[in-house]
Amino acid sequence: ALREEAAVVRRLMACYLHAPLAVHLRRNSAEFARTLNMSTRMVFGPMFVTILGSLADVVSLFVVAGVLVLVDPIMALFTAVYFALVGVGWDKVIRARLTEAANRLHHEAAIVFRHTVQSLAAVREVKVTTSEGYFTEVIHRQRRQLLPSYRTIALSNVPPRHVLEVVMLGAPIAAPPYAFTTKDTQAATTTLGVFLAGGFRIIAPVNKVLSALTSARNGMRALEQIREDLTTFECYVVDDDDDTRLPVGPIETRDLR
């Protein structure tokens, strides 16, 4: 993942540097800095790692599901539908908030980058005008405005496990009527024990899968920005494999029109 991230950053940097000057006059360089430093880290960091880690939990889910199907196919179907409804319900509850937080963070992070870079680049003017406190307060205020979005994204992976644990309590209430009307007491008790053990066993994998989906949703805006910039600017990139040295001698500009 880290090598892929470095490769993507290299491609983006080549795109930005080879793009015509008119592109840089239309777009602030802070947007490029945001994509290079923040968007790529979000995609190849939490998003990539969480999704990759959830693949093993998907295998665990299928193994437990297979055992439950062998014990009682009808109750296994009921369990699958039960957790599917929980997952869909949780996704509908949190989707709008996560999308809004991710979009806002993506947009306003560029503003913070812009003010930070411009303040440091113009440090001589800042000192001459003795406006250090003003620009410090501006950046501090902008970072504070991002706190709700950061908080929403950071805490989005915490509630699913607790929600699943609470919802799992509904299984012992809904399952016994079916089990005890279709089986004898001993078989029904054994079946319920197996399903309760399996249900609590899959809470952790289901939680990780939901967390992976949440991380994917958080990183979608960043991924879209990377794809958009690569699609838009990669046509300007030439084969620069051998063009890795600085020009020899001074650089002069003549007859610029």
Report what the structure shows.
- By secondary structure, the protein is mainly alpha-helical.
- Helices cover 83% and strands 0% of the residues.
- The chain is built from eleven helices and no strands.
- The chain has helices spanning 2-18, 21-26, 29-71, 73-121, 123-128, 132-145, 147-155, 159-168, 171-182, 185-201, 203-233.
- Helix 4 (73-121) runs antiparallel to helix 6 (132-145), helix 8 (159-168) packs antiparallel against helix 11 and helix 9 (171-182) packs antiparallel against helix 10 (185-201).
- The longest helix has 49 residues, at 73-121.
- The radius of gyration is 27 Å and the shape is elongated.
- The chain starts with a helix and ends in a 24-residue tail after the last helix.
